[in-house]
Design brief:
By secondary structure, the chain is of the alpha+beta class. It is built from eight helices and eight strands; from the N terminus they run H-H-H-H-H-E-E-E-E-E-H-E-E-E-H-H.
Length: 254
């Protein structure tokens, strides 16, 4: 993987356990602590509400504060589900695309092979352009950042990987342009399932790194081309011809 977990790497108590298993153990061990903190938050909100307004308002604020803390931790745990299952996010991203952009006329091809350039997780073709999606699942402690003009995953620079992804997107564009006799541009997106990523998507060297839930909006609002419905179908047919289906529906990490 581009990045990996640093959870207690040198702690002999966890030797022989995968990072995913360690994370699960720590999560359940901290359950009582989370409940105590949640109860304290709800109690403080209740007291403040009762003093500033009324007992009824205090109870309502306590419920809202406790519920907000519950939702926050639930979302943090849910965000690591793909990584904890040893997956890369292909299935999750396929489901998101199927329930969003595919309903708006976008076409999605899965697990396509680019001759001499690896695999494409999803190729999305729509009115706003052609997008190449690459999925990655990182542990929750993995920092995803940009220093200068380089992308870092954890403590490691991802220059080689980003270069390969740019080359892959460029190759797909070349194949489609040659097949159709007109210029086609392909934009690569890296979808981060887990890890520590800033709220706003990261853009470096022509590659955008973003969260799964932000992908549909990116595809529909960030236009890098204009295609009619007939052109979308034509590009899709060309992609089917020049990009064969990969060996597996949801390929492993490259």
């Amino acid at each position: 993987m581009l990045g990996q977990s640093f959870y207690f790497r040198d702690n002999p108590a966890y030797t022989g356990h995968s990072p995913q298993a360690v994370y699960e153990q720590l999560w359940f061990q901290d359950r009582r602590k989370r409940l105590r903190i949640r109860g304290a938050i709800a109690f403080v909100a209740l007291v403040l509400g009762a003093k500033l307004a009324s007992v009824g308002i205090g109870v309502l604020l306590g419920i809202v504060a406790g519920g907000t803390d519950l939702i926050y931790h639930w979302r943090r745990h849910a965000a690591t589900a793909v990584w904890r299952r040893g997956q890369r996010g292909d299935r999750r991203m396929a489901r998101i695309l199927r329930l969003t952009v595919e309903l708006r006329g976008y076409r999605v091809l899965h697990a396509r092979s680019v001759p001499d350039h690896g695999m494409v997780d999803q190729l999305v073709i729509g009115p706003t352009g052609v997008w190449l999606i690459h999925n990655e699942a990182w542990s929750p402690d993995t920092e995803i950042s940009v220093y200068g003009d380089r992308l870092f995953i954890g403590k490691s620079a991802a220059a080689r990987t980003t270069a390969e992804l740019r080359d892959r997107a460029r190759r797909v564009a070349e194949l489609l342009s040659r097949e159709l006799g007109t210029e086609i541009t392909t934009v690569p997106l890296v979808v981060a399932h887990g890890g520590k990523l800033p709220w706003n998507p990261i853009s470096v060297g022509g590659i955008v790194v973003l969260r799964p839930h932000r992908v549909p909006g990116r595809l529909t609002r960030q236009r890098h081309g204009y295609h009619t419905r007939a052109q979308v179908e034509s590009i899709t047919e060309a992609a089917i011809r020049v990009l064969p289906i990969g060996g597996r529906m949801f390929p492993p990490h490259w």
